[in-house]
Amino acid sequence: MAPLDPGTRLSSGPEDFLSAGPGPVLIGFGSMASGEGEQLSAIAVRAPRRSGLLVPAPVRPSPS
User: Fold this and answer.
1) Any idea what DSSP says for residue 13?
2) Would you write out the chain's pLDDT as a tens digit for each of its 64 residues?
3) Does the model's pTM come out above 0.70?
4) DSSP character for 61?
């Protein structure tokens, strides 16, 4: 994917999210396999949000 031109504007949803506070925190588990994936995801998102950091909601893969 090519990088965006610096003059390109995002749609209002991402612009509003990014303007709402400090830069967002990205939490990734790579290819980690765990039987507690949903619980770990909930903890990983809840902790930074409680600290006032922006964390995008996890994206759940659609069933194939």
Assistant:
1) H
2) 677 788 888 888 888 888 887 777 777 777 776 677 778 878 887 888 888 887 776 666 666 6
3) no
4) P
**Cα–Cα distance for residue pair 31/18, rounded to 1 Å:** 27
Rounded distance, CA 44 to CA 55, Å?
9
* b (16+ CB within 10 A) / e for 14-43: eeeeeeeeeeeeeeeeeeeeeeeeeeebee
Q: Is 4 exposed, middle or buried (0-12, 13-18, 19+ CB in 10 A)?
A: exposed
Amino acid at 46: R
- Ramachandran assignment for 30, one of left (phi > 0), alpha (psi -120 to 50 degrees), beta (any other): left
